[in-house]
Amino acid sequence: MNSEKRLKSFSKKTPLLLSIALAASSSLAQQSNTAATAEISTNTPTRLPVVVVTAQKEREEVLSIPVSVTPVTRETIQNADIRTVREASIYAPNTFINEFSARAVSNPFFRGIGGSPQNPAVTTFIDGVPQLNSYSANVELVDVDQVEFIRGPQGALFGRNTAGGLINITSRRPTDLWTAYADANYGNYNFRDVRGTISGPLFQDQVGLSLSGGYSARDGYTVNDFTGHRLDSREAGFGKGQLLWKINDRLDLRLILSGEHDHDGDYALGDLGFIRAHPHHVDRDFEGFNHRDVISPTLLANYYGDNFDLSSISGGVWWKNEGLTDLDYTTVPGNTRDNVEEEHQFTQEFRFSSPKDRPIHLNDVLDLGWQGGVFAFSEDYQQSAANNTLIPNPFPSPIPTFIPLTQNSSADLDNWGVGVYGQAKLTAWEKLDFTAGLRFDYEDKHAELGNSLNPPFAPPGRVVASDNFSQFSPQFSLAYHFTTNHMAYASVARGFKAGGFNPPPTGFAAPPGTVEFGTEHSWNYEVGYKAQYFDGKVETTAALYYIDWRNLQLNQPIGLSGQYFIGNAGAADSKGVEFSALYHPYNWWDLFGSVGYNNAEFLSGSQNLGMNVGGNKLPYAPEYNANVGTQISWAPCTRATLYARAEVTVYGDFKYDATNIQGQSAYSLANFRAGVRGNHWFAEGWVNNAFDTHYVPIAIPYSTPSGYIGESGAPVTFGGRIGLTF
Q1: Residue 25 CA to chain centroid, in angstroms?
Q2: How many whole angstroms separate alpha carbon 200 and alpha carbon 726?
Q3: What is the 3-state secondary structure (H, E, C) of 276-300?
Q4: In this structure, what DSSP letter does residue 257 have?
Q5: CA distance 61 to 327
Q6: Residue 637 near residue 115 (C-beta atoms within 8 A)
Q7: What is the overall mean pLDDT for the chain?
Q8: Looking at residues 667-691, what average pLDDT do you find?
Q9: Which of 19, 101, 243, 662 has the lowest tally of Cβ within 10 angstroms?
Q10: Phi, psi at residue 146, to the nearest 5°?
Q11: Which of 241, 255, 190, 240 is nearest to 218 (CA)?
């Protein structure tokens, strides 16, 4: 009820807030017209900058490709102080990322399609390297140039586990001149964050270097009433180093090494009914932790030839996560879970393509561009989990006693695979593009699964299994460029999520037939329109889509233990519309917004643990989401510029699991920041979730009074930020 009242109150305030922002913008416009200096008072033409993306592996303007992609540029990352992918995702329609307070567990959902960390439906690529397990994907953004949210299946070029799309993160290249940047944040909950970058040439036009890093920490948002402690604190140290070697005009090498150490508190999980009545409070006897380490070396090589270009991406990812938490999330003593997971992966891709901006001229009206490549990977995942409980002593005793019981499980999953792909784009009259792509993927998987008891009341169990999977992924699109600034397209694409094996549950027997799950595949049908108007001051994108997918992989709970297995549940479809717009009327004023509507449902006959869920909503698929905001600036003198930014994000209602028993109703979040910027410095104040909206973005079935445990979303936070640039 409190959340509903706040939502209604906020809904009433939103028009007023936007009116104030627009009125302030008009006032600044009148003041700027009288200013004798600064860019605002000149007649310099204003237009939106050209944004280039690599959504189809090649550098192309975002308005020229037949793909739904939302780029979050370096400028937006700086203006909104974006530090994580989830913070960037608010600008992408029909995108939702559910994230526990322990940052390692973060799952993206695009257009209703999602997955598990072990088998994601939306894969994150960092500098061209896929994060095969999402445990390594949610890292602090430092020295990042752009984050792209690419929606719709991308199997024809990127292969496995991009059935919903992909998140593409690219680092900024070392600069040609020496530059330095540093900023520091401090806010409530003892939030402190410092990060910086230095970049420049070691040898002019030959070797470049950049070093960046930072430290971020805060106290917990959630109070444990049993102990009085805050239990979901966060702390992280992170860094990135780059070395760029321009061997000659045709060949360059780029080495990137990044790493992060997270020292987070426990999950802020509690009974769903309790935390809805008492936001940011739980009642538990045990407080644990989550520690994660990630190391990622990447080597990029690019050759630019007369007849073809060649690129190579070599990437390694090593991560380890250890979590110790309460097993019952109540005040019952003696129940804990210790879970250690780690993975080593190596990927290698070689890609050939026609030279950039130099397609093959077939005749006076036809041009042909092409690309093709081969991709190989190996992945070794290991898990060791132990549930520690107290059970009644089974031996006769005059006094009832309890003895400790440890239930162990282990998993060793080894995967390797190869993919071969090709794509051709035929352009007629420089207006009509027909693109066709096809990829073949093969992978081999091996699993060793075990469980045991201590004391050994039963003999240990062991399962050894192997299988292989193969898949073809085609993609077709037709695009027509009415002018250089107006383009319509239609596309058909097939995506898939690879089959595999489930790690064994701890303390529970695996349900029969759940050791292995099969491949999921989907077809996406989409039409869209991208355009610029008014001399480049207005930019809009729109898409209408329908997704049909079969053999749907669904995370299904094992009892009420909080553990899941991936099972093929049946079929589902998703249909929706997306729209985004940017407006840059003056150099000092920007307006931006996006909205998405999505209806994702299980089809008749779909099963969740034997229960028919046909007609139910897919989990974590908000019916709609939207973001609207504005940024304004005013230069009262040549030495300083005042600026302000306001934005509101809205999520429609969604369900927590396939049963649709529990879910989150619609909610809104408002963020504001304002400050002053000089030639080499800035200072600002900020507030996030300004009206302290209470919401529960994630919950799972569990053996608690309400039948679910969940976590409160982040409360109102505020603070100040200063920075220096050279």
Answers
A1: 33
A2: 11
A3: HHCCCEECCCCCCEEEEEEEEEEEE
A4: E
A5: 50
A6: no
A7: 90
A8: 97
A9: 19
A10: -165, 150
A11: 190
The span from the CA of 664 to the CA of 92, in Å, is 20
Report which secondary-structure segment, H or E, holds 613: none
Pairing of strands 281-282, 223-224: parallel
Question: What secondary structure, in 3-state letters, does 585-607 show?
Answer: EECCEEEEEEEEEEEEEECCCCE
Q: What is the pLDDT of residue 207?
A: 96
**Residue 522, both tokens:** 């989907």
pLDDT at 26: 36
Over the stretch 163-222, which tens digit does the pLDDT of each residue have? 999 999 999 999 999 999 999 999 999 999 999 999 999 999 899 999 999 999 999 999
**Percent of the residues in the chain that have a pLDDT greater than 70, as a whole number:** 93
| Two structure tokens written together for 274 | 């309790």
Q: Are 546 and 532 in contact (CB under 8 A)?
A: no
Instruction: Report helix, strand or coil for 400.
Output: coil
149: Cβ–Cβ under 8 A, 6 or more apart, which residues?
69, 70, 71, 72, 88, 89, 91, 92, 95, 110, 165, 167
| Residue type present at position 327 | L
Q: Read off the pLDDT of residues 618-664 as tens digits, 9 standing for 90 and up.
A: 999 999 999 999 999 999 988 999 999 999 999 999 999 999 999 99
Cα–Cα distance for residue pair 262/237, rounded to 1 Å? 7
How far is the C-alpha of 408 from the C-alpha of 385, rounded, in Å?
Answer: 6
Q: Which two tokens stand for residue 459?
A: 């003999």
What are the E-state strand segments in 354-365? 360-361
For residues 161 and 166, give the distance between their C-alpha atoms in angstroms, rounded to a whole number.
9
Q: Measured between alpha carbons, how far is 377 from 548 in angstroms, rounded to an integer?
A: 28
CA distance 418 to 355: 25
Tokens encoding 102 = 């322990």
Strand partners, 63: none
Please state, in angstroms and rounded to a whole number, the distance separating the CA atoms of residues 500 and 520. 11
Contact 128, 59 (CB under 8 A): no
Q: What is the DSSP string of 431-478?
A: TEEEEEEEEEEEEEEEEEEEEEEES-SS--EEEEEEEEEEEEEEEEEE
From CA 168, how far away is CA 130, in angstroms rounded? 9
pLDDT at position 8: 44
Q: State pTM to two decimals.
A: 0.92
Query: 360-383: buried (b, 16+ CB within 10 Å) or exposed (e) per residue?
Result: eeeeeeebebebbbebebebebbb
Do residues 343 and 382 lie in contact, with contact meaning Cβ atoms separated by under 8 Å? yes
Summarize the confidence of residues 694-702 as an average pLDDT. 94
63 residue type, one letter: L
Rounded CA separation 42/28 (Å): 15
According to the model, what pLDDT value does residue 722 have? Answer: 97
Mean pLDDT of 556-576: 86
CB 327, CB 387: distance < 8 Å: yes
